[in-house]
């Protein structure tokens, strides 16, 4: 945590990737869950299973269109260089 904000520094041997959730504070004296997922290059940092994601639905042509904004609870990055 940096100033109550979830942060992750990860290095798979090819350089350091730094991920930090913006405008999110977890210094509220409550339990929180942080998940880190990686597929060797791409890394995800997710807060509280992203329950705070904003889901928007709109009526499209013959169907409903749903989009999800996860920017308040998840950040993604790619480790530097080609190494895994």
Automatic annotation (TrEMBL):
Q: Where are the transmembrane segments?
A: none
Q: What is this protein called?
A: Laminin G domain-containing protein
InterPro entries recorded for this chain? Answer: ConA-like_dom_sf, Laminin_G
Pfam families found in the cross-reference section: Laminin_G_2 (PF02210)
Could you name the domain of life of the organism this protein comes from?
A: Eukaryota
Q: Which residues form the Laminin G domain?
A: 1-84
């Amino acid at each position: 945590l940096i100033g109550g904000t979830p942060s992750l520094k990860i290095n798979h041997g090819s350089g350091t990737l730094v991920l930090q959730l913006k405008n999110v504070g977890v210094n509220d004296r409550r339990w929180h869950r942080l998940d880190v997922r990686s597929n060797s290059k791409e890394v995800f940092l997710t807060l509280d299973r992203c329950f705070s994601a904003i889901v928007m639905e709109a009526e499209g042509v013959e169907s409903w269109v749903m989009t999800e904004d996860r920017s308040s609870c998840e950040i993604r990055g790619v480790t530097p260089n080609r190494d895994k």
